[in-house]
Amino acid sequence: MRTFELTREFAQEKDRQDILAKFQDRFYKIKDTIYMDGNSLGLCSKDAEARIIEAIEDWKRDGIGVWEKDGYFLYQDTLGALCAPLVNADPDEVTIMNSTTNNVHQGIATFYHPTADRYKILVDDVNFPTDRYAIDSQVRIHGYDPAEAVKVVKSRDGQYIYEDDIIEAMTDDVCIVFLPSALYRSAQVIDMKKIADAAHDRGIYVGFDLCHSIGAVPHDFKAIQPDFAVWCDYKYLNGGPGAIAGFYINRKHFGMEPGLAGWHGNRKDTQFDLKQEFEHAYNAGGFQTGTQPVFCMAGLEASLKMFAEAGLENIRAKSLDITDYMMYLIDNKLAQYGFRVGNPREDERRTGHVALVHDDAIRINAAMKANGVLPDFRFPDVIRLAPVALYTSYEEVYDMVEIIEEIMVNKKYEGFSGERGTVA
Fold first, then answer.
1. Partners of 378 in the beta sheet?
2. Among residues 92, 18, 42, which one has the least CA distance to residue 234?
3. Structure pTM?
4. Domain 8-32+312-414 carries which CATH code?
5. DSSP β-ladder status, 174-180 and 205-209
6. For 336-359, what is each residue's pLDDT tens digit?
7. What CATH architecture is 50-309?
8. How far apart are CA 357 and CA 163, in angstroms?
9. DSSP-assigned beta bridge partners for residue 8
10. What is the pLDDT of residues 242-272, one digit of tens each?
């Protein structure tokens, strides 16, 4: 049981004890801003900046020689090996490629082989919708109507996924289950092993979207044994805006033909033979398609090395502690103004952000922005607050709560519109 106090001095003492505090100086923190949106876009690190500049210099110096002389031709293998410990997978089970949505397409296209009796893909209705868009698209390509072939398990409350409801829906006509590891709005972490075990007992493939947990929550794919997984690298992993994404495939499926084939999925020893017949590489790299963007990868490399230096276990420990501290302050200072915590409280069931719920969240969110706090609004009533372990201090959390309280006391939010902007 963690214990906290309401004073600024307590927050300052927590910062003095923080073994990750030294990493804050390696990030470009926004002037006069308390940044609470790292679960949407991580801040730029000085490490990433330096590595991107180095990659540009390599290109300037060596031209086409960057591929072989500077090692970029197999860069995705280097980054896959750096990313693999975050999910406890073998290095050759992980690669870096494409965008998250394209990787969903790759996963579904690879594993979706519908038959007359087994043709449905099981999903939830509270996940970030890009996964559903991709799944509906793949179903149509195979000649099915999503209304018939996509089986949607509705949340009981619109906030959480209930694993038993998912398992109950794993009927004989389901061939794939695809779910988020964590929910983008409510910060719930689902029991992936329970889902995977139940699916495999029924002969169903299972895939996960880790976008809202990777880099904040350790995953153990040796224990979970999913068939495939995808994730973005620009949130907690600080890879940069629109950073290249991640893809995992369980080694037992290395021989499976990629649903979407391209020349970078070809065996490396014959890739430049430029044959007209695809020769699939039997590893995660075999599911690559086109040439990967080196400059995007360079920033991610630096960030992944920082994660290895800090230790994911230390990052998770601070994330749980600082979000617990934030919930303590919300309970004791903000609840009186109509706020409540909308995420699970148990450590094992929550990710790296706090869902601050209020009926007037959209205007309060705007007022927070105008008063030096950069949060993240999600319709209809959630302000997402992510104190990221590598660059957020306890005192910043304290100051943010003070600012919110002052906004409520003086009703500053009343001067703001209830209309959403283009980017919520």
1. 382
2. 42
3. 0.96
4. 3.90.1150.10
5. parallel
6. 999 999 999 999 999 999 999 999
7. 3-Layer(aba) Sandwich (3.40)
8. 24
9. none
10. 999 999 999 999 999 999 999 999 999 999 9
